[in-house]
Each structure stands twice: as structure tokens, then as C-alpha cells.
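Example for tutorial group B:
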């Protein structure tokens, strides 16, 4: 029964992320909007104060590497464009497929690992995976944003 509830929650969260991302493309982006999500998410690391969520070094590295690999997909689909003299993130047709694919991978991993790893440790690993996915993605977004902004400013100064 727990697996069905957590799967349902994961689907609702994925739909929320997708809707948020679609809304995000309608508003201009700035450095603060890129940097703040990982900072807000970092408070979740407080879970590791409780022994049930603590992971081993091997589990930490596993989650870290998986998150960084998954971040490549997000980095590849995040592009910026200048519209109405402001910078926006472009909509990506691949984003929904990547989001669904990552959710399916997460659910399969949860089913496989859920029988061998304690639920708290698994929760800690999934938090680390998500954090290791978001931080490189947002760093790449910030770098790309600054590049687009510099190009736009130099182009507008030429005119």
C-alpha cells in the first residue's frame, strides 16, 4: 500500500514540476531565480541529523554520481533566449519526456532498492540524488544565463 501512495505522490510532484517549468518559461529569468532553488532545497540536508536517514560513503557516492549523470539531461534541455529585451528560458519539447523518464527510473530504483535498503536511508539517497542533479544543472544555467546576458548587452551597446 505504501508503494502506491508514494508513487502517487511522485506523479503529483512530477506534474507540479512540469507545470512550474511551463510557467517559468513565461517570465523573465534572473540570477536570483536560478540560484535560490538549490539553496532552498539544501535545508533538506537537515534530515541527516537523524540516524535513520544517514547513508554510508558508498551510498553517498552512488547517489551523487547518479544525480550528476541525470543532471546532464537537464543541462542539455535548458537554453535561454532574449525576448522583449529580457532573458527567458526556452521551452523544451524534450523536458516532459526527460521528467517522465527520470520518474520511471526513480520508481524502478525504489522498487528494486526498497527491499534491500531501509526506507530512511533510501530517502536520504534520493534527496542526495536530487540535490546532486539540481546543483550542477543550476550552475550550468547560471553560466549560460551570464553568457547570454553578456552577448545581449554587448550586442545592444553596438547599436
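The residue assignment follows.
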Amino acid at each position: 500500500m505504501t508503494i502506491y501512495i508514494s508513487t502517487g505522490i511522485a506523479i503529483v510532484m512530477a506534474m507540479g514540476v512540469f507545470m512550474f517549468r511551463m510557467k517559468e518559461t513565461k517570465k523573465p529569468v534572473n540570477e536570483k531565480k536560478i540560484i535560490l532553488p538549490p539553496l532552498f532545497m539544501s535545508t533538506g540536508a537537515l534530515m541527516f541529523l537523524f540516524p535513520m536517514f544517514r547513508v554510508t560513503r558508498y551510498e553517498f557516492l552512488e547517489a551523487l554520481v547518479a544525480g550528476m549523470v541525470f543532471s546532464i539531461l537537464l543541462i542539455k534541455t535548458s537554453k535561454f533566449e532574449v525576448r522583449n529585451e529580457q532573458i527567458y528560458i526556452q521551452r523544451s519539447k524534450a523536458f516532459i519526456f526527460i521528467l517522465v523518464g527520470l520518474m520511471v527510473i526513480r520508481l524502478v530504483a525504489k522498487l528494486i532498492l526498497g527491499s534491500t535498503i531501509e526506507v530512511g536511508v533510501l530517502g536520504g539517497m534520493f534527496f542526495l540524488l536530487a540535490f546532486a542533479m539540481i546543483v550542477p544543472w543550476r550552475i550550468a544555467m547560471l553560466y549560460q544565463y551570464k553568457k547570454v546576458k553578456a552577448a545581449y548587452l554587448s550586442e545592444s551597446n553596438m547599436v
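The chain has a mean pLDDT of 87. Compare this with the pattern of hydrophobic and polar residues in the output above.
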